[in-house]
Amino acid sequence: MLPVVFRDAFLEGVRKIDELIEHASIEGDVAKIDASRLNHKEVNDLMRECVLKGAKKLILKNVCGQRYIGTRLHLPEGKKVEIEIYGTPGNDLGAFLDGHRIVLHGNAQDGVGNTMNDGEIVVEGRAGDVVAMAMRGGKIFIRDDVGYRTAIHMKQYMDKIPVLVVGGTSQDFLGEYMAGGMVILLGLTLEKLKHRAYYIGTGMHGGVIYLRGEVEKYQLGKEVGVVDMEEEDWKTLEKHVGEFSSYFGYDADEILAEKFMKLLPLTKRPYGRIYTY
Amino acid sequence: MRRKIPDKEIQACALFGVMDRSGRRFGGDIAITAIKNMKVRGNGLGGGFAVYGIYPEYKNYYALHIMFQNASREAKAEVEDFLQDNFDVVNAEEIPTNPEANVIDPPLFWRYFVAPQKKGEEKKLSDDDYVVKKVMYINTCIEDAFVFSSGKDMGVFKGVGFPEDIADFFMLDELYKGYIWTAHSRFPTNTPGWWGGAHPFCILDWTVVHNGEISSYGTNRRFLEMYGYYCTLFTDTEVIAYAVDLLMRRQRLPIEIVAEIFASPMWDQVDHMDEKKKNLCMALRMVYAPLLINGPFTIVVAHHGEMFGLTDRIRLRPITAGEKGDLLFVSSEEAAIRAVCEPDRVWTPHGGEPVIGRLNSREGELNEV
Amino acid sequence: MKFKTHLLPEFIVKRDEDRCTRCKVCVKQCPFGVHSYDEENDRIISREELCVGCQRCVVYCPENALIVEPYPGGYRPNEYWTGEYIRDIKKQSESGGVILTSTGAQRRLKIYWDHILLNASQVTNPSIDPLREPMELRTFLGRKPDALEIEYEGEDVKIKTELYPNLLIETPILFAGMSYGAISYNAFKSLAMAAKEFGTLFNTGEGGLPREMREEFKDCTIVQCASGRFGVDPEYLNSAAAIEIKIGQGAKPGIGGHLPGEKVSADISATRMIPEGTDALSPAPHHDIYSIEDLSMLIYALKEATNYEKPVCVKIAAVHNVAAIASGIVRAGADIVAIDGFRGGTGATPKIMREHVGIPVELALAAVDQRLREERIRHKCSIIVGGGIRCAADVAKAVALGADAVYIGTAALIALGCTMCQRCHTGKCAWGICTQDPKLSKRLNPKVGAQRLVNLLRGWSLELKDVLGGMGINAIESLRGNRDHLRGVGLEEWELEVLGIKGAGE
Ligand code: SF4
Ligand code: SF4
């Protein structure tokens, strides 16, 4: 006996846009959406509708678990909007984000900024696993901690360099396969400034990780090395930490007074020599 | 004849667990609302709940929840004869259900409150082992009958449908109060659409809900066979439940140790531990490596007095923990917790590190990052 | 440590000295440096240990002076310790590495296509003449609703059901994913042009889609979103007819891959959006997919990113539990499931994966189709099968086993010039296909390449029509899943059962 029931959890019960519109109110170029009774697709349908109707700013209230917020806004004319979120959005917040700005007053789940192209995500709280996976441009600021596999396979191309600043600490596999971009981990939630993550930068072959505080050598992947901080590095940090601090009310100088570790890949070609023809 | 090597179930899902560590009993809406919030993690082919503390008036009796496929009267008669022969049956009743609920082909559900009536050789068995043996007999030898819950003062309610449909079917929010609720929403890819196949899986008062697909299933199963556990459902969950039963109930290992067996630390990490910890990890690995659960999993296990959540050692499946006052939550997603309350705090445990809730303790706090 | 190699040459180069005019064409044509001109003695000499047997020099020698054939010498014949095992061990004892190879599995395992025979009409129903009667190969790919709800408004008929996006192709043959990077720009372009001209689709593989091609080819492109996410941005996703999530590949199920840094040229780096010269690593899994519900999450993320306008295909390798996995994929929201067998090619794979992992695609296809029907969800997706489709007969058999269409990769490359020398991973393809060396890739002219591919599609389509006509069928849809038109020879009971076909004569 095999299952013969087919239920599409995602699309089941999705209402048409004209039934949804009552959950939004547009005043000038600001749209307010009450997400409390909307499912995943409905929230995004409504967001798109509001933007097409002229909204430049979207304020989402009562978000609880809805995925892909911001993903549907690849707009033909390249219009960019600002999205303010109250509540806890679901996975893949800002996945494939195309230049918009998201400010989240709360915690985020897994997959923040997945394959994000451009824009900015500011999370006033913590985030789950695979933050900034395959991110290729724009900036993400997370105030508190992040989970596993942060910045996995982040990439850069020419002047498109993604930046992730995490105020707290990260769990294992930070920067795995990282191929470009910048990760700054500030450790502000730690008592002793000792990060616990293992396999940091394993398989990393591009980009840079700055860690405030310490990690032991054996917590690092084989493919990364610790190098000395230089003048340039501090300048870069000043810029991004400055921005971070302005968002979350920290004192940048105080943060920068600590020791930082700079991690770079040892080679652009980590697995070049394990093959034979 | 074709060789009979059954397929194992492949599935994924959403999990949720909530426990009041002071023992206060509460209704079903927390678990139901939370699991419903994660609807897209399931596909409507299975949902279920385990609730602890629901039968205080019968708390010294094993509560057997039994389903009869095809509403089979013969199966029911046979089961009842069998129960009369082997137990004192102090109460038997149909489990109340809602005929309006959005479910398809529900079987007939009955529950029996029983005390063991051991005879002869069987007197040597503990009550628990005796019950396990009799439950196994019904499940394997009586056609169309399936015992899906067999603990004291607790019960499993499960079936085919989204979990909120199942809750509605068993009227969980109206009829029951418990101090632990675990919930499960399934996304199976290859299991029969039958009600017994849903989760939680239960043996005595131990229940397991699980998310992920275990790559080491064959190894785990064949090891457990040496200890007399024969898997009849071919699900990952069943294997985990037996492993928990073996290690925690029979071998009396605490969850902290069992976590190191299921999700043993990487050698890279063991190499840098202090001598004592290192020796422990090495010994556990040496003895229990066949119970290393490899591949992605998150489990929520409960029995009386305790609930814990655990992920695999490289955290391939998600888990979020939260607490509010005496309430401890474990969930696949944080939003599900926030859908039911504004927690005092939430955190993400490290891979392989259990989140433990015990009666009258705040053990969960120890597991902060 | 350097030591003398113990390896035997694999090929021998025979040059007819009487015919050879010392024109040195072979010297120029061989990218592996086999031939060189010895001025002193005025003759061409060959270092045959370097020869890979690609036949380039043979084809281009104006005097037909060359024969390249397998090296006749060898070890003492041994059915168990074959020359190949001995050779591999020696290779590894000299390098300590993983043996890398390319193309698809070549081991002698049963080829089920060759044990299946097609039917034809005799007497009881007429065959149809495909040259004069209409013969339809047009194929829809995508999810279909359970039923169409139709409303009459007077004379006007309105479809009330919202249809899912579907692809329409003129023949049930598509070009399989081959990335720009794995293959040359010219080869990539040839595929795109041919697909456009013939009315089918090509697949970008995981290396992105060059910007200048987006406008022109957007209606005949399937863009891939693989674990490396190279060149994947909203614009890329939106400049295609469909999106394919590549989970696995028949030639290397379960492992990732990497495009070595030396192949990441300026153009490739722009398309993949990574810096020049870095290894392009594709992780083994998608790190946002560790389970079926995560796959569902990515499927819908892609649908969100493209406003639900494009079908999403999920490509998997044919592995043990393929039927159950496919069912999960459909339930996770995919519109198309692509199954790739181990005969399917690749630009580079560890030999151990290519030769030992996966199951034959014919069995996988039959199992998947059957399973989806039993679960009553077959119409919720289309099935594309690929991995070693060699001729129109394979296509017909695949369709009869239940495929909606097939992917061809290797066959397309052979049309472009490939001779199956299995050296794609060296980046020195003499035919300008699997190389990024501009000197080599310019050997392939996209216009000519496209024409060869169109010819191939035309030839196969005509043959398909012949087969259909012979069966008395005039629409490919009537062959789809029509296993009554198949019979097996030389198959055991269990094999017939998995394939769901009768034995010949039954
Ligand atoms: S490698 Fe190819 S071109 Fe070179 S000698 Fe051998 S067959 Fe000729
Ligand atoms: S593509 Fe080129 S290198 Fe690869 S097998 Fe064909 S001829 Fe050889």
Describe the structure.
- The complex is a heterotrimer of chains A (277), B (369) and C (506).
- Chain A has helices at 17-20, 40-52, 231-248, 252-256; strands spanning 24-27, 30-34, 57-64, 82-88, 98-105, 118-123, 139-142, 163-166, 179-185, 206-212, 224-227, 260-265, 275-276.
- With 277 residues, chain A is of the alpha/beta class.
- Chain B has one domain: Aminohydrolase, N-terminal nucleophile (Ntn) domain (Glutamine Phosphoribosylpyrophosphate, subunit 1, domain 1).
- Chain B is 28% helix and 27% strand.
- In chain B, the strands form 3 sheets. Chain B has a 7-stranded antiparallel beta sheet. Chain B has a 5-stranded antiparallel beta sheet with strand order 9-10-11-12-16, with helices on one face.
- By secondary structure, chain C is α/β, with parallel strands linked by helices.
- Chain C has 2 domains: 11-97, Alpha-Beta Plaits (2-Layer Sandwich); 139-143 and 171-503, Alpha-Beta Barrel (TIM Barrel), CATH 3.20.20.
- In chain C, the strands form 8 sheets. In chain C, strands 11-21-20-18-17-14-13-12 form an 8-stranded parallel beta sheet.
- In chain C, helix 12 links the parallel strand 20 and strand 21.
- Chain C is globular.
- Chains in contact: A-B, A-C, B-C.
- Chains A and C meet through helix 2 and strand 13 of A and helix 3, strand 5, helix 6 and helix 8 of C.
- The site of one iron/sulfur cluster (SF4) has 14 residues of chain C, from helix 2.
